[in-house]
Design goal:
Helix content: over 70%
Shape: globular
Order of helices and strands: HHHHHHHHHHHHHHHH
Structural class: mainly alpha
Distance between the termini: 20 Å
Number of domains: 1
Largest sheet: none
Number of helices: 16
CATH class: Mainly Alpha
Number of strands: 0
Length: 405
Amino acid sequence: MTAGHSLAYGVLGLPLAFAALPIYVHVPRFYADFAGLELALLGAILLGTRLLDAGIDPWLGWLADRVPRPTMVALALVPFAAGFVALLNPPVDLAAPWLACSLALTYLGFSAASVAYQAWGADVGTTSAQRTRLTAAREGFGLAGVVLAAALPALLASELGEGIRRLSWVLPPLLLIAAVTTFSRVGAGQPVHTPRQPLLPSLRLVLDDRAFRRLLGVFIANGIAAAVPATLFLFFVADVLQLERESGTLLALYFVAGAASLPLWVKLSARCGRVHAWLAAMLLSLVAFAGASLLGAGDLWPFAAICVASGLALGADLALPAAIAADLGERQGQAGACFGVWNFIAKLNLALAAGLALPLLALLGYVPGGGDGLSSLSFAYSLLPLAFKALAGVLLWRWRHSLEI
């Protein structure tokens, strides 16, 4: 497999991640400001739709083992694009039901495309090293899409809300260009070995793999540690740091650092193993978030340094565990089912972060845009993730020998 094929496969990750950033980062603040939705109602809608989204991923993974992966990706891109445009262009009077319905449509297309796309990469790569490179290419282009989505709202309009609306119309042409590139250059890969089991026995086969269960345990703890600050990032920057106008630049800095670190983590994993490289990234992330707890109003440059450090760690979080999961999925002969469960866990982390963190902050007295409850916000953004990240590191070290394939 040439580097060109890896890049051609990875380019479709750009528009998928381009849409993911507004969905998970901008939408809570956008609907709170635009429609005046209360945090409790907003959190309930986000929790409900994300749980629904996560719940269909195992079924989508099972389906991806029974139909050609490229076909499933192509069909899923249509509802994904339509739902995303609708999501960021809501009517004022029907904001709550519009949010629920447009999120459901976007999630359906995004989930089906993502599961099949990840399994497709596991098919195309024939060795662990190739799958690591393919995963790194996909996540590298994904980070480029995230940086683009973070920077564009400020460039498209002087007011953030209008910039986010205009951002939605950038996705369809971007998606078309990326899809044509990927589908024209990447083959179907190894033939899909269709398991005879129905859905539940297929999922049971996935979860009977002890190494995969252990990987999921680490992934859950590490994912919660990442999901909570991702949900609260804009609130923290606007109200604790009082740097709302710099939020796009800080997000871009974080993701640029993540993209730049991917070749480093690939090389480091080839030298000392993916597990040890991932552990090093966790330690770096622990230091970064410990520093965030000490910040206050106007601390732009210290927080920028924290964004760079945590962004460097992000590269490992994106590339290494998914590459290990791809190996385990191919070993089982049902990569689609494995990535269905994998994405279910990833989205469950995000659902819990939004559905529990936002109402909890409201209960503790935090009000967006005001001066109340800022200490609670600072604790939830910086210190709470430390406990989960430390747990992930301990589990990864304990199970390191069974996870290095």
